[in-house]
Amino acid sequence: MATVRLILGDQLNPTHRWFRQVDPAVVYVLMEVRSETDYVPHHAQKVIAIFAGMRRLAEQLRAAGHRVRAFRIGHADNRQSFAANLRTVFTEVGATRFEYQEPDEWRVDQDLAAFAANCGLPTTVVSSEHFLDARTGVAAHFQKDAKRWLMESYYRKMRVRTQLLMDAAGTPLGGEWNYDAENRKPWKGTPPPPAVWDVSHDHGALWAEIQAAGVKTFGEPSAAGFPWPCDRAEALAQLDAFIERGLPNFGDYEDAMHTTSDRLFHSRLSFALNVKLLSPLEVATAAAEAHRRDPVRYPLAATEGFVRQIIGWREYIRGVYWAKMPGYATANGLGHTLSLPSWFWTGKVKMNCLRHSIGQSLQTAYAHHIQRLMVIGSFCLTAGVDPAEVERWYLGVYIDAFQWVELPNVIGMSQHADGGFLASKPYCCAASYVSKMSNYCGGCPYDPKDRTGPLACPLNAFYWDFWLRHQDRFLNNPRVGMAVRQAAQMPPAEQAAIRKKAAELRANIEEL
Ligand code: FAD
Ligand code: DLZ
Ligand code: SF4
Q1: Which atom of ligand 2 sits closest to the CA of residue 82?
Q2: Residues having CB within 6 Å of any atom of ligand 1
Q3: Is the peptide bond before 326 cis (omega within 30 degrees of 0)?
Q4: Looking at ligand 2, which atom is closest to the CA of residue 42?
Q5: Distance CA 336, CA 308 (A)
Q6: Which ligand is nearest to the CA of 449?
Q7: Model pLDDT for residues 400-421, shown as the tens digit of each residue
Q8: Residue 233 confidence class, pLDDT cut points 50, 70, 90
Q9: 0.85 exceeded by the pTM?
Q10: CA 85–ligand 2 middle distance (angstroms)
Q11: DSSP 40
């Protein structure tokens, strides 16, 4: 009699109730497999971080007395897929029961359900005990046939449910639910960004194993001085460091970008959260508690902004994913078909904002929200890149990219490919925004003030051409109607020059 329990690469929570009791009749299985490393090209650091985390959890479970069967990527007995390896283990241990935690990815969920239906063993699916809400919680909150689900309304419900940043009367602290308007300052060098809280692992041997197994990756592995946490203690130390050093200025500079700091005051906790080393409730509670202790050092606007990302956006995005899959993956509401430029894989582009943001992503597997949304994503949206190609790139490149969170952010928030279901406006910008929120334009060969000249910033022609191309769709959108009207009221000659410039840029997209 043996129960086999599967632990996926993003289920590294050592506090899960599974592990509370040692039971010699239970065998935990973790697998480094090619079916997971190869379904999209992955950044080297993402593969290393997931494998390192799985190995550390396996070690910890063994040390606590649990039975563990771990498949390493290069081992001869590894049949390189969940199903094939599970069958091996079932035979090895004489399995009589199979259990797994609810997967977060639609593809894996489907595959495991199909496997369970055919494996001949009674199977139980248990909660991963990570999220605040059920997969269906967001869908249940909104009207079924609503054209748009507004995050803000769901977020308020989550504030009430968690009682975070609420006063005794049941109203939001400070009287407002959302302080976003206070959180849009550019950063000009002061206050200095906090000393970084990265760990520094040497994963040289693991990286050699990954390469020897033939796993194809891209990006800088950083195997020496590897910065991502691989266990809960390291993740908790990073949470503490963020609260202490980053949170006080998180709000003010949340939207700022600068060549001298790849993160400014952002937490870099997304990897630890997404592989479940940290729980969203403990992260949001730590921030709210800091504000309660010292509201001067931890302003309400900063704290509320951070808490909203975790209990609002993160949960809402997950609910949209489960409500809209599998069709969401192929949504292309604006009919965009341009191929992703090859420099997304090399960073070799002259546009300084993109060179910096893509180069940083390839080097570090990380970019913060505004780089993802308003530089890289906005370029793809206004140039008209096929959203499925954009989605594939984002899923591979970022350390925190798991499809349940990545896909709605790319398809919905960034590429507006879902017809505006998730985002109430297309998030896009011209050079004026980049110039205001960063120092990128200073080191750029293009002119941020010009729209159509030979050295005009490409973002400008793409931006205005985007509104011209899609004016019928967005003219009545209260959030962007003004920009659309501005484009529509330009003299015909100027419109023609913008369209011509954008077409030329598209034709020469590899040379930008
Ligand atoms: P912080 O700015 O410190 O924010 C704190 C936490 O809030 C993050 O760690 C994250 O868990 C959560 N959060 C913030 N914004 C969002 C959001 N929009 N959706 C969900 N959670 C959010 N996040 C991912 O975790 N994985 C992805 O693959 C991913 N892809 C994205 C793609 C695009 C096009 C965009 C616009 C955003 C994407 N995000 C993704 C959301 C966000 O950009 C990252 O969570 C954030 O940049 C991670 O860095 P951080 O931990 O320093 O975040
Ligand atoms: C992303 C990833 C990678 C690169 N490798 C593995 C792996 O070898 N084994 C594993 O269990 N999980 C891996 N993952 C994460 C999965 O692709 C997938 O995203 C989650 O397990 C499903 O939620
Ligand atoms: Fe980017 Fe244009 Fe500024 Fe260059 S000028 S950094 S391309 S916004």
Answers
A1: 11
A2: 266-270, 273-274, 309-310, 313-314, 317, 368-369, 372-373, 377, 394, 398, 400-401, 405-406, 409-410, 413-414
A3: yes
A4: 4
A5: 31
A6: 3
A7: 999 999 999 999 999 999 999 9
A8: very high
A9: yes
A10: 14
A11: S
Mutate to test the pocket of ligand 2, among 32, 36, 86 (most ligand atoms within 8 A of CB): 36
pLDDT digit string, tens, across residues 241-289: 999 999 999 999 999 999 999 999 999 999 999 999 999 999 999 999 9
Mean pLDDT across the stretch 290-312? 97
How does pLDDT run across 329-340, given as a tens digit for each residue?
Answer: 999 999 999 999
Please tell me the residue having the least CA distance from ligand 1 atom 43.
369
Q: Whose C-alpha lies nearest to ligand 3, atom 3?
A: 441
The ligand whose atoms approach the alpha carbon of 352 most closely is 3
Position 262: which residue type? D
Quote the pLDDT of residue 354: 98
Compute the distance between CA of residue 425 and CA of residue 481 in angstroms, rounded to an integer. 10
Testing ligand 2's pocket by substitution, the residue of 6, 10, 68 carrying the most ligand atoms inside 8 A of its CB is 10
- CB of 130 closer than 6 A to ligand 2? no
Could you tell me how many residues make up the chain? Answer: 512
> Which numbered ligand comes closest to the C-alpha of 55?
2
Compute, in angstroms, the gap from residue 321 CA to the centroid of ligand 2.
18
- Our CA angle for 104, 108, 113, nearest 5°, is 105
Q: How far is the CA of 10 from the centre of ligand 2 (A)?
A: 6
**Domain locations in the chain?**
2-126, 137-213+229-324, 349-511
The ligand minimizing its distance to the Cα of 438 is 3
CB atoms within 10 A of CB 88: 15
Q: At what angle do helices 315-324 and 151-162 cross, to 10 degrees?
A: 120
Could you tell me which of 242, 244, 249 has the C-alpha nearest to residue 182? 249
Tokens of 48: 């290393």
pLDDT tens-place string over residues 141-195: 998 788 889 999 999 999 999 999 999 999 999 999 999 887 789 999 999 999 9
CATH 3.40.50.720 assigned to 349-511: no
The residue-averaged pLDDT of 228-249 equals 97
CA distance 409 to 4: 34
Which CATH number describes the domain made up of 2-126? 3.40.50.620
Nearby residues of 140 by Cβ (< 8 Å), 6 or more positions away: 134
The domain made up of 137-213+229-324 is a member of CATH 3.20.20.70: no
The closest-lying atom of ligand 2 relative to the alpha carbon of residue 31 is 9
